[in-house]
């Protein structure tokens, strides 16, 4: 039985989650030639059409047959907010079952990036994140992850060159769908985005980091670190009660050994919580000698928590302490702060009827 038998939505097969070979097999079972699969795959994953009707080089009868057989994954944009500060766009999409997900489009000098969600809601419970406040609903299918990128590409009319799986959800908690999404996104017959231009974030699921390492992909792994000690990390991130920093660091080293890809450590600076000089020194002690990069993130405040961002001067001081110890560090450019830019903010706002 094909893996794609798992992707059945509304009693129809989820065609956008098929690889090209699987689509060929599917159409063969319908007594259709392989070249039709290639045509259809190009419409789906290169031309990014919103429906079968636009597949104009397919016979009308075949398009109607596809409508009856396959679920064509599309996301309905409910809200699009554009930042007056930097042009960042925040999208809220309605899924086929009435759930919502968020995505963010960001323009950089090196190209356009899209940050996508991997789950509806999140189980992980990180204290500074709005994504987790209403709990977890379900995993996203590969097609739902892809369609966030495709819908944004259609709306902006611009090519996406970088993808960050760092929106709502824990990607490694949706492991098989994540792998299939990456395979489809990087396929030379599709958008063909380089694996090196894909970043996957995790809060630190140790067994899954090691499993991902064994895939030997060339994607960047971004670990949500956010604290230099177990005690402090447990305050901010419930997952830290399950996996110690020693275990997480060992998994990150293993990832580098297997892939040769340096680790990116995400560190959200929260005023009075994890941003003093002593904590900077503890962080240096934790990661010194690793092939890594630290991304300092002034936390994006959410109203449900009383956390506030570290002052600019202390952010710079924290950065300088790390740099003086030979650690590669940047401060994340604050994108979309005026448009509910942080993970989960817009979805929660709409669901609560604000």
Describe this structure in words.
The protein is elongated. With 354 residues, the protein is an alpha/beta fold. 34% of the residues lie in helices and 21% in strands. The protein has 11 helices and 15 strands. The chain has helices at 20-29, 34-45, 60-69, 142-156, 175-186, 206-215, 230-236, 245-259, 277-287, 312-324, 345-351; strands at residues 8-9, 12-14, 70-71, 76-82, 89-94, 100-108, 111-116, 119-121, 136-139, 162-165, 198-202, 220-224, 263-269, 292-298, 329-331. The protein has a 10-stranded mixed sheet. The longest helix is centred in the middle third of the chain and has 15 residues, at 142-156.
Notable traits:
354 residues, alpha/beta, 11 helices, 15 strands, 21% strand
Strand percent estimate: 15-25%
Shape: elongated
* Strand element count: 15
Helix content: 25-40%
The major β-sheet equals:
10 strands, mixed
CA distance, first residue to last residue = 46 Å
Evaluate the radius of gyration.
21 Å
Topology at a glance:
Layout: E1 8-9, E2 12-14, H1 20-29, H2 34-45, H3 60-69, E3 70-71, E4 76-82, E5 89-94, E6 100-108, E7 111-116, E8 119-121, E9 136-139, H4 142-156, E10 162-165, H5 175-186, E11 198-202, H6 206-215, E12 220-224, H7 230-236, H8 245-259, E13 263-269, H9 277-287, E14 292-298, H10 312-324, E15 329-331, H11 345-351
Parallel strand pairs: 2-3, 7-10, 10-11, 11-12, 12-13, 13-14, 14-15
Antiparallel strand pairs: 1-2, 4-5, 5-6, 6-7, 8-9
Helix pairs in contact: 1-2, 4-5, 6-8, 9-10
């Amino acid at each position: 039985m094909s893996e794609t038998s798992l992707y059945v939505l509304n009693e129809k097969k989820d065609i956008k989650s098929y690889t090209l070979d699987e689509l060929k097999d599917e159409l063969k079972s319908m007594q259709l030639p392989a070249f039709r699969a290639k045509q259809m795959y190009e419409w789906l994953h290169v031309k990014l059409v919103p429906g079968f009707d636009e597949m104009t080089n397919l016979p009308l009868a075949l398009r109607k047959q596809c409508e009856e057989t396959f679920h064509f994954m599309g996301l309905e944009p409910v809200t699009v907010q554009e930042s007056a500060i930097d042009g960042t766009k925040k999208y809220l999409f309605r899924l086929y079952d009435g759930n919502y997900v968020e995505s963010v489009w960001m323009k950089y000098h090196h190209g356009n990036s899209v940050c996508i969600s991997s789950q509806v809601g999140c189980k992980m419970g990180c204290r500074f994140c709005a994504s987790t406040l209403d709990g977890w609903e379900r995993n996203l299918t590969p097609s739902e992850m892809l369609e966030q990128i495709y819908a944004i590409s259609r709306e902006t009319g611009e090519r996406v060159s970088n993808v960050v799986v760092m929106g709502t959800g824990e990607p490694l908690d949706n492991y098989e769908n994540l792998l299939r999404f990456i395979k489809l996104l990087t396929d030379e017959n599709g958008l063909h985005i380089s694996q090196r231009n894909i970043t996957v974030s995790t809060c630190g699921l140790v067994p899954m980091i090691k499993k991902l390492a064994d895939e030997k992909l060339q994607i960047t792994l971004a670990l949500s670190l956010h604290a230099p000690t177990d005690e402090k990390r447990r305050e901010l991130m419930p997952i830290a009660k399950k996996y110690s920093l020693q275990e997480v660091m060992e998994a990150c080293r293993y990832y580098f050994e297997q892939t040769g890809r340096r680790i990116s450590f995400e560190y959200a600076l929260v005023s009075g919580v994890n941003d003093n000089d002593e904590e900077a020194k503890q962080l240096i002690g934790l990661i010194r000698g690793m092939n890594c990069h630290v991304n300092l993130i002034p936390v994006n405040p959410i109203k449900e928590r009383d956390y506030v961002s570290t002052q600019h001067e202390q952010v710079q001081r924290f950065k300088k302490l790390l740099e003086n110890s030979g650690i590669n560090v940047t401060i994340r450019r604050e994108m979309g702060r005026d448009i509910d830019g942080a993970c989960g903010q817009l979805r929660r706002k709409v669901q609560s009827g604000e």
